Every structure is written in structure tokens, then in C-alpha cells.
Amino acid sequence: MKQDTLKHLAIIMDGNGRWAKERGEKRVKGHEKGAEVVREITSYCANHPTIETLTLYAFSTENWKRPKLEVEFLMQLLERWLKNELEAYQQNGVRFEAIGDMSRFSKKLQKRIVDTQEATKDNSKLTQILALNYGSRAEIVGAVNRALADGQEITEANLSHYLQTPYSDIDLLIRTSGELRISNFLLWQLSYSELYFTPTLWPNFTPSELDEIVANFEARERRFGGV
Ligand code: FPP
Fold first, then answer.
1. What per-residue confidence (pLDDT) applies to 222?
2. Distance from residue 15's CA to the centre of ligand 1 (Å)
3. Residues with beta carbon inside 6 Å of ligand 1?
4. For this structure, is 63 an active site residue?
5. 14 is catalytic
6. Strand order of the sheet with strand 126-134?
7. pLDDT < 70 regions, the chain
8. pLDDT at 220
9. One of 4, 63, 101, 169 is an active-site residue; which one?
């Protein structure tokens, strides 16, 4: 059977810290370079004939455990990045979305997120979803509670509807930096995904490597439990 079309790609962007360390730089330099790579990969996906959704793990619920200064830097980088990115979103036809619990973010960052969603909502070449202060177990628990509060029966279809990401199942998950873990990312939506792990550190990841991974995906056979 020929591989289904790649519509929804998800990426765990890992290795920024190690990239910086290899160069004798501060970890935040790795995040800065990582943000540039986000731009290149988003542009690749927006121009790809079949990819409709790109979900990126930008900040996990566990990332608060990092040194305060690094967390603050990541928040500022995100705020600055969204502001600068608006033009590229409009040019590339990218609709911006965010998932996760953003209530702990500064009011300024929360406003920037909402404004960017609003400004890009009619773009249709690609939906880019940033997972921000995101944890999959919390997302599933929240979905169950919302369904129960609405008096709904808990079924697969109902739960999918109540998740923060009712967009579509994920076809392919990539994790960079050689770590072989899912790390509480989109556990429900990854049920039938193909998984690809590359040793490349995120700041070194390129559209041409992504192109090779996509070709590899297209050559795989997915049977969804059938024969
Ligand atoms: C993992 O590297 C990456 C993150 C914690 C966050 C990802 C952030 C970016 C790619 C930059 C900002 C993103 C946007 C959208 C502006 P790590 O620090 O865990 O690396 P390490 O495992 O080598 O320490």
C-alpha cells in the first residue's frame, strides 16, 4: 500500500542547549538559532504540496524547571519572535495557532499570541500550531472534564472533539537531537503516527534534511492495524 499523504507534521525541537555548548556559547544562543530554524521549516511546510498543519513543541510544562533567566529569555524570545514573524506569516499564508496553558504567561505575551491568531486566521496554506506550556496528560484530563461538564459520554470521538487539538491526527512525528522519547507530547494524537528520530541538533536541522525525512515517510507502509 502506498503511504497516505503527509498532512500533519509534528516536531519535538530538541538540542538547542547542546548546540550552544558545543560552541562554548550560552544556552540562550541555541534558542536564538533554534528560532531561525523554526522560520525556515515553517516556510518549507507552507510551500509543501500536502502538509496542512505543523505542530511544534516550543515550551513544555516541565520547562519551568529551567533556570529562571533561561525561562525569561525563552518568553521574551517568543514575544519578540511573534512580533517579527507576522509579516512572514502573512507572506507565506500561515495561520498561527497555540495550544497549552498560557495563563501563566505575562499579559503582554498572552496578548501577542491572541493578536497573532486573530491577524492570521484567514491564512490557509499552512496552520502552524505552537505548543506552549503544553503537556499532553493535562490536555487529556482537561478534555475529559469539559466533556463531563457538558454531560457528554466519554467516547473516542467525543474526547477528540474536546481536546485542544481537534485539527487532525498526526501523520509523522520527528524528534531531533537523538533522544528517543515522546516527553508528554500529543499522546492521543500520536496513536498511529510514524515516528522519526534524527541525531541532528535542532539548530542544525535544515529543510533539506526534512525533505529526506518526508521522502522516507512516503516510502513507508502504514496499515493502521490492518494487513
Ligand atoms: C529544546 O532544546 C528546545 C526547547 C526547550 C524549546 C524550543 C525553542 C526553540 C526552538 C526556540 C524558540 C521557539 C520559537 C517558536 C520562537 P534544549 O534546550 O532542551 O536542548 P538540550 O536538550 O540540548 O539542552
1. 66
2. 7
3. 13-18, 31, 34-35, 38, 58, 63, 77-78, 81, 130, 202
4. yes
5. yes
6. 94-99, 126-134, 53-60, 8-12, 172-175, 194-197
7. 1-4, 165-167, 222-224, 227
8. 82
9. 63
